Amino acid sequence: MDWYAFLFAVEVAVGGLLSGVMYALVAIGFVLIYKTSGVLNFAQGSMVLFAALTFVSLVEHGVPFAGALLLTLAAMTALGFAIERTVLRPLANRSPMTLFMATLGLAYVIEGAAQLIWGTQVHRLDLGISNAPFEVGGIFISTFDLVAAGIAAAMVAILTAFFRFTRTGLSFRAVADDTFAAMAVGLRLNRIQAAVWTAAGAVALVAGLLWGARLGVQFSLSLIVLKALPVLVLGGFDSILGAIVAGLIIGASEKLAEVYLGPFVGGGIEGWFAYAVALVVLLVRPSGLFGKKLVERF
Amino acid sequence: MSDVLLEFDNVSVRYAGAIAALHGVSLKVHKGEIVALLGANGAGKTTLLKAASNLLPAERGQITGGHILFRGRDVTGSSPHDHIRKGLVPVLEGRRLFRSLTIEENLITGAVGRGLRRAAIADGLEQVYTLFPRLRDRRLSVAGLTSGGEQQMAAIGRGLMARPDLFVLDEPSMGLAPLVVAEIFDALTRLNTETGLTILVAEQNSSVALRHAHHATVIENGRSTLSGRASDLAARDDIKASYLGGHAA
C-alpha cells in the first residue's frame, strides 16, 4: 500500500470513529434505562426526535439558542417524570416483555405528540458549527464531526462523573445491581427511575441536536434507533463503556467496509454492515463485549 | 415487661393470589430485646420478615389479613422507604450486597436510603468500621469479590448506616463458617447491650440464635407454634427435635 492509500484509509477510519461517537451517544440513552428498568426502551428514538423537534421549533419561534436548550431540557425532564408516573409505575414488577411492549407504544405516542404539537414538515437545524474540512498531517477531517464527537465525549464524561460522585448516581448503580435490595435499603425507585429517564432525555436532546444538524430534523430521525441496536448488541446492553467502544468499532468498521468491500458487492454496505458485525458477536458472545454474563440458576 | 416495638397481629400472606404462606401469625417484639424467629426451611420466616418491611409486593406477595404495628402505629401499607425512615431496617437473606459497588459504597447506600447527609454518613462509617474492623481494610474492595463473612458484615453495616431502632435480620449465619457466625452474633449482641438496638432475627441455626436471644418464636407451616424465653426453649430437647431440626432430624 502506498503512502497516499494509507492516508486515505486513516481518513476513512477517523471519519468512521467520529460518527461512531455519535452512535455511542444514542446507545447510551438505551443503556441508562436498561440498567435501571431492565427494559429496552424502544421509545429512545422518539425521544431523540421529540427533543430535536422541540428545540428547532422553539428556535424558529424566535427563542434564543440557550433559552431553547433550557426549555427543551425542561420538556425532556417533564417527559421523563410523566413516563415514570403513567407507564412504569403502573407496570412495576411486570415482565420485561410487557415493559418492552409499553415502550413500543410509548414510541408512537411520543412521535404522534411531537407531530401534533410541532407539525410534520422537515426543519433545518443550524448549530453554527462549520462543516468545512481541515487538514491534519495530510488527513482531512470534518470540523462538524470533530466538534460533534467532542460534545458527545463531554456528555459521556458528565454522565460518568454523575454516576461516580453523586448520591443519585450511587443509587442508580445500586438499583442496576440489585433492584430488590435497593428497595429494601430504602432507595426510592420511582425517583431514581424518573431521574434516569430525565438523563436519558438529556442524552436524547444532545443526540437529537447533533443528528438533526447532520440529517435535518424530520421523522426519520427516530430511526437512528436502528443505528444504535447493533452498537448495543456489540457492546452489551448494560455497559456504558461497552456502548462507547462498540460505537467506535461500528462507526469505523462500517465506513472501512463501505470503501474497501463495497466495490466488490456493488456498494451500499454501510446500511447493513453493522448488523452483520452484531450478528457475529451474538453467535460468539451473546452478552456483548462488555455486558454482564447472565447465568440462570435452577 | 418493656413496651412493644413491633407487633404482628394475626398476619396472613399469600403469593400471587394463590399460595398461602402465612396463616395468622402473631408475634411481639419488645424494645431492647433480641427475638429469634426459628423454623425449618420454607416455614415462612422470610415471608414474615419481608411483610414487616412491606417488601412482599415486589415478589407478588400480599398481606391478606391482620396488621403490623410499629410503635403502636399500623404500618402494614407503608412503603419500604417509610419503614426505614421510622427506624425499622431490614437485612435481607443472602446478604444481597450491590456486587459491583465497593464495600464503602454499599455502606453509604444504607445512609442514602434513610436520607442522611454527609456528616451523618461519615459518623455511620466510623461506627461500622469500629464494629467490624475487617471492613475498614476492605472498604475499597468490590463487594462481589469479598468473602461471605465480609459480605454479611457489610450487609449488617449497610443496615446500621440507616440508624435503626429495630433491626430485622434474615438468616445472617447462612453459608458461613462457625467462627464467623459467632463473630457476627457477638457483634449483634454488643449492639443490643451497648446501644439498646432491638433485633428480630430469623435463623435456621437455632442453637446459636437461642444462645444470643432473649425470646424466641417457632413458626411451622406458616403458623407460630411456640413462643417463650430463649433459655427455656434451649433447655427442652423435645422442642429441638420436633421443631428445630435438631438431633432427631
From TrEMBL, chain A:
UniProt topology in membrane: Multi-pass membrane protein
UniProt KW keywords: Amino-acid transport, Cell membrane, Membrane, Transmembrane, Transmembrane helix, Transport
Compartment(s): Cell membrane
Keyword Cell membrane listed: yes
Any one GO biological process: amino acid transport
Chain segments annotated as transmembrane: 6-32, 39-59, 65-87, 99-118, 138-163, 195-217, 229-252, 272-291
UniProt xrefs under InterPro entries: ABC_transp_permease, BCAA_transport_permease
Record-level GO cellular component terms: plasma membrane
Molecular function per GO: transmembrane transporter activity
Keyword Endoplasmic reticulum: no
Family affiliation: Belongs to the binding-protein-dependent transport system permease family. LivHM subfamily.
Protein name in the entry: Branched-chain amino acid ABC transporter permease
From TrEMBL, chain B:
Gene3D superfamilies: P-loop containing nucleotide triphosphate hydrolases
Keyword Phosphoprotein: no
InterPro entries: AAA+_ATPase, ABC_transporter-like_ATP-bd, BCAA_Transport_ATP-bd_LivF, P-loop_NTPase
Protein's GO biological process: L-amino acid transport
Superkingdom to which the source organism belongs: Bacteria
The entry's keywords: Amino-acid transport, ATP-binding, Nucleotide-binding, Transport
Any GO molecular function: ATP hydrolysis activity
Matches recorded under SUPFAM superfamilies: P-loop containing nucleoside triphosphate hydrolases
Claim: rRNA-binding is one of the keywords in the record: no
Residue stretches making up the ABC transporter domain: 6-246
Family that this chain belongs to: Belongs to the ABC transporter superfamily.
Name this polypeptide is given: ABC transporter ATP-binding protein
